Amino acid sequence: MANAQPQARFSEGSDEASLSSTLDTLLSKGRWALVNEGEAVERNFKFKNFAKTWDFMTAVSLQCKTHNHHPEWSNVYNTTFIRWTTHSPKGLSVKDLKLAMICDALAKDFGEVEAPAAETPDEGASCGVRGPGPPARPGTAASRSRRTDVPPPLREKLCGRWVDSWDERPEHAPPLYTAV
Q: Where is the composition biased (Basic and acidic residues) (predicted)?
């Protein structure tokens, strides 16, 4: 049985009976997976668009602050990957499982959509804004790059045209970042 699920490994001092029951409930829904030799739970969340995904991540981050615990996570366009584990003491903790359940509730609130099992996120295809775009215009920094060991600069389409550098961004384009 190569695909057998690992046995849960809980953080030292945890109420294993209570956590086992909570873990069984999470795993029975079929979305969370027990990984990392039983020391973590993880899953993907998919939403209608990037804005809904970002709203979900913001709500999760507020819960992280409230519970003083953070996940390992990543985001590509409308999909967020979350893994909950505790590093010290190592293993699954009550915070991991509680926050996993909170993530499920928040995902429902933000309109999570069902993702086909075989679907893999592809930022370029999903977003349609960032990507290689048309060839760089002659004389731009992007056209002068001759290095073959690094990818060409990422270009973005703003206000209906492809932009090769920071200097070419229209003044009315949305900021890439804001100072805090």
A: 146-155
CATH superfamily of this structure's domain 16-109:
Transcriptional coactivator/pterin dehydratase (3.30.1360.20)
Q: 133 pLDDT exceeds 50?
A: no
CATH 3.30.1360.20 domain extents, the chain:
16-109
Q: What is the pLDDT of residue 162?
A: 55
Q: Are 7 and 1 in contact (CB under 8 A)?
A: no
Distance (Å, whole) CA 108 – CA 106: 5
Contact indicator for 126, 119 with CB cutoff of 8 Å: no
Whole-number pLDDT of residue 14: 78
What backbone torsions phi and psi does residue 167 show, to the nearest 5 degrees? -65, -25
- CA 137, distance to chain mean position in Å, is 34
Block residue for tokens 């490994």: 9
User: What is the SS3 assignment for 87?
Assistant: strand
